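My current task is to audit a protein record that another person submitted. My question to you is simply how this chain folds and whether the tokens agree. This is what I was given:
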Amino acid sequence: MSVSPGKTRRKFEEEKRYNRLFAKAGRFPFRIVLDGLKATYNVGKIFRSAQAFGAAGVDLIGISQFNPYPAQGAFRYVPARFLASFEEAHAALTTEGFTIFALLPPGPGQAGATDLGVLELPEKSAFVLGHEEHGVSFRPEDFPDVRPLAIPMFGAVQSLNVSVAASVVMFEYTRQHGRKGATP
């Protein structure tokens, strides 16, 4: 069953109002940064995972609206910050004391990326996930403090759906920090 664009828009505005009223930072001080993702199903699915893994919030760069239905209500509870550019997100995250990681797709652009699972993630980590086809919106050399990060893959297909990649990163973060005195 498909939902009309008008109904999706109304649902998004309703959920955005609830987000402003009810959203609170989760158990862990990490943020997910969605850099220009397509506003279809993945954004909502990432909110759902962010709520499940206790994220402090989700930053949306260049995403003014998305389909809230796949979030299954999680958009109401995870603080959302809507930003115009990566520069704006970088300034906010840096001021807030986050170490910023950019999750890179497999391939030549991944040179110098640290494999997830090998790295001890700082408590205040922010994970940037780029557009499904074009990657991040910024030139990595313009932001040398943003650390490249890779999910090691061993199959013939060397990519993951962006919502799955976000979930893998959130799982690894909570695996590392879940036993360090956080309370439910």
In short: The longest helix spans residues 5-22. Residues 15-151+158-177 form a domain with the Alpha/beta knot fold (CATH 3.40.1280.10). The two ends are 37 Å apart (CA to CA). The mean pLDDT is 90.
